[in-house]
Amino acid sequence: KLVSREFHPEDTVIRVGDVSIGNGGLVLIAGPCAIESEEQALTIARHVKEAGAQLFRGGAFKPRTSPYSFQGLGEEALRILKKVRQETGMPVVTEALDHTVYDLVEEAADIVQIGARNMQNFSLLRRAGQSRKPVLLKRGMSATLDEWLMAAEYILEGGNPHVILCERGIRTFAHHSRNTLDLSAVPVVRKESHLPIIVDPSHACGRRNQVIPLSRAAVAVGANGLMVEVHHKPDEALSDGAQSLYPEQFRRLCREIEPLIGLY
Ligand code: PEP
Ligand code: MN
């Protein structure tokens, strides 16, 4: 298999602008769940950049459980993301919700995200395989590692070798946490595959007070990066406010993981 270490013994390193993912350092991706306005996006982008984030995240097309919830600003958000890149120099990550918006999203994004709910959306995976833009493939909420790696295989087999895996928590019986962060996936994926793997503690736990400890653990277990939700006014966030860190907390996260980088 193309995703396996047997096929490709060296770690895959993905370059986005002057950021490398999978090279032994740690990439930090941060930003709001959703782009809500230009002012919101730029404010948060400046905060996270100053704290040490290398990439900015923000949803334009949002996969919401309820059709009545905020669905994202769509194309307007893509325009805002371009502005964020222009103003801050940070490459941007945003989700393509289905293959029909892929053209629009890949034109605007530096990394195209495929969300947990879409991990086995095969038309989307095939479309991502035809792209030259790196893809951030999130683990489905009940996917085994084999299913996840086979989803990545679709993209590689389609001709796009630039895939980053993202562990974001799986569904269990736990109620103390939105999902259960499966950190045991990290060393196993790193052994089985050459693809970089990052961890999203925000969607895993759903509560901001668990994000920093889970981030430390993810770095210690050998993740190639973190993706964290940050909002300057989480109480007013249109989605995922409860798990969004205040900018000050994100600065603390950056300080606390620093001594753990490269330990593994
Ligand atoms: C996200 O990262 O914006 C998101 C919706 O996450 P997930 O697909 O992991 O739920
Ligand atoms: Mn979110």
TrEMBL record:
This is 3-deoxy-D-arabinoheptulosonate-7-phosphate synthase. Residues 14-252 form the DAHP synthetase I/KDSA domain. Keywords: Transferase. One of its GO terms (biological process) is aromatic amino acid family biosynthetic process. It comes from the Bacteria. The chain holds residues 70 to 333 of 350 of the full protein. It comes from Desulfacinum infernum DSM 9756. GO terms for molecular function: aldehyde-lyase activity; transferase activity. Coiled coil: none annotated.
